[in-house]
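Example record for the data management plan.
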Amino acid sequence: MNPIQLKSLKKISFFMCSISQAFSNPSFQISYAFPNVEELNIDYCSDLVELSGDLTDLIELRKLSITNCHNLSALPEEIGKLIKLEVLKLKSCTDLVTFPASIKNLDKLQVLDISDSFSIKKLPEDIGEISSLEKINMRDCDRLKVLPSSVYDLKQLKGVICDEEMKELWEIFGLKIDIRVLKDDFNLDWLIWLST
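Corresponding structural encoding:
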């Protein structure tokens, strides 16, 4: 029996699913099943430890949102193959520590959200090569204590959401960007800011 291929599918969401078995199954290739998907959302999938390398063959992918997957500890090394990716959201991926070096190849990436991913210790050294990056949400990334000097090369960067300590680090670079510090009692206005 041939696997199903959903060529018209543009958006897929997995919510509170056990998906690691599907991603690790060699007979299932996400890029074959969903060749034209533009948006992939994975939320509260607690068994997800790593993403399939096959995911990087989703060449039409524009938005990858992985949220509240607390056991996710690694992104595929080839994530830089997602050359149309505009939004990368890794919110509350509490076991995620680093980024693959190939992330610098995401030329169209405009929004990077790593908020509440408190195990991340540093941004990629070559983050400045992501020339279209406009917004970064790094709120509650408590272990992130330094910024790579390449952030100075983020010429399209318009805004950062972070904590007070991180705000001081951003200000050292003298970039003309909107730096927002959100307190615990914040309202939802930041959602509007992030979407514009």
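Summary line stored alongside the record: DSSP finds four helices and eight strands in the chain.
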